[in-house]
Fold:
Amino acid sequence: MPKPNIVILMTDQQRADCLSCAGHPQLRTPSMDRLASEGVRFTQAATVSPVCMPARSSFINSLYPHSHGMWFNSGYVMPGGPNLFKSLKNAGYVTAHIGKSHYFRHGSATGHLRTYEPYLHQLGLDYVHETTGPMATRIIDSYMTDLWRERGVLDDFREDYNHRMEVRKVNPLLSDPSPLPPDLYLDGYVGQKSVEFIEGYDDPRPMCLFVGFPSPHSPWDAPGEYASMYDPAGAPDPIPMPDYGDLPEEIRDMDDFGHFKATTLENIRGIRSSYYGKISLVDHWVGRILETLDEGGMLDEAMVVFWSDHGEMLGDHRRIGKCTFHESSMRVPLLMRWPDHIGRGITRDALVENIDVCPTILQALGLDDSWPVGRSLLPVLEDPSLEVRKCQLSEVQTTERRFCIRTRERKYATTEDGRGFMLYDLGNDPEEQNNLIGKDVETGNRMREALLRRLISSQHSTERPVEELAGGVRGL
Structure:
């Protein structure tokens, strides 16, 4: 059987509920819905880290942050280890990346992104057309800023973003349209370059094309008609902020994770309407990519994966941003389409993680799938009664390292030194309004032991022995 072309489409900071096929009351995503209707949607997918670089690293190397060593937006993916791109390249694929990669810290980069292409080649990528995300584009040049400079809009963009950076110090909920037209906006640029790559592809070898869309990551600057596409008044209300008055002050502070507390419903609705507009712009280009594959006779046999690195609080619990283990930040969309190989229009509620996609692709191709901790999803696609795992693990570092375990019914989070700060009964409290930490001690202890078992069982080439981490978490 000929190897299929593989197209991986990734958004940045898109919530799991922000798909119309997931039941969103306002947002329209016909192209993403098409992938779901012609493939499978995983309704309980979660990120192993609610922050960009750790999640992206985990996706390509199928490891948790405590194994690959990247805990926050700093450092870089080690080029010497195995990853998805290297495996596919060794199997005869042409590997290509267009858009945002964020496998190294863009904020510390200087000059032009072209100078970092040798590093991305070391990761197994043959073709690289890299851009940064929105904020880093203020200071770093790329193929995209080259075009903007030629078109005379680069100074306008950077002046606008520098202004937003100043305003966000006092108003992180500013939502104003971008000065760029949609076709030159970051996602328009990435989408167009992806279409051009597919149209011009003439290599006899199969391709793996990874497309990294920068949206809907903040700032809230949907361009052109996408800025007014959604009426703020029609945006769904955010999940209210719980009353944490019965919790110790140090736990209330931990649960806040230092993110902004949104104060007005009007502002929250404003950023939500812009966020939805940015998703619709991406959806337009997802549709164009699918159409281009179809026009080139490649879609019927192509494997298409759509996912996001993490979610966005978007005013829920009066917070914006990520880095928290709340559902809005931790859960992500995950869609897969591969005609004649997986079902059409099916959903699976297995507890899957973004590290499971890599072994799924490789097993589907008959390649080595003996990855250390990620698990192939193919058995779940064939039999909905099967489980991938009993619980999901997520990790992050803010001022300290923190760990979370999520089952269908419960969620528990702790600091590295064993201070539990989050315990929710998701079955009866899906909006996470009643933190049971310190109230249901028995359940908390049981969840902590389950977390310890997950940490120890997932050990692989750790930068620091997992038993040491577990010892701290145990707090004994």
Remarks:
- The chain is about 30% helix and 15% strand.
- The first helix runs from residue 30 to 37.
